[in-house]
Amino acid sequence: MRIPPRIEREVVRLSDLTVTDQKISGITFENCLIMGPAVVVMTGGDGTLQGCTFDGDLDAILWEIPQSRGSVLGAIELESCHFIDCRFTLVGFAGPAEFLNKFRSGIAS
Fold it and tell me: Beta-strand (E) ranges in 2-108?
């Protein structure tokens, strides 16, 4: 499935974008409702979450992955994706403690 480089004002089920691959790469989502159920891992180092909202308690949304773990299977990889003014519902974010702390700080500010 070919995904356009930019998706705006859509309801997006992440599982619909990962039918043949667990990775979504280089896509910008703006003013979208991002739907799970899903657990995502942000990779690529330059992905962003700007002005987004998240349904649920942060302790339920964030899943810590120990630094010692070499890989993660079953999660959706968001490589260098950008989310602008999106709302996430039924989506968990997995990553090392450093990522989770940065996530918490960004939400709190």
Answer: 6-8, 11-13, 23-25, 28-30, 33-43, 48-50, 53-54, 62-64, 76-79, 82-84, 87-95
In the prediction, which pLDDT does 109 show?
39
Q: How far apart are CA 94 and CA 7, in angstroms?
A: 23
Please give the pLDDT value at position 107: 67
Domain ranges of the chain: 6-108
The neighbour count for residue 42, using CB atoms within 10 Å, is 21
- Asked whether 5 and 26 are in contact (CB, 8 A), the reply is yes
* Cβ-based burial of 13 (10 A; exposed 0-12, middle 13-18, buried ≥19): middle
Residues of the chain with pLDDT below 50 are 108-109
Give me the sign of the Cα torsion angle 109, 104, 44, 6: negative
Q: Residue 95: which of 45, 22, 50, 52 has the closest Cα?
A: 45
Q: Which residues pair with 13 in a beta bridge?
A: 35
Distance CA 49, CA 93 (A): 12
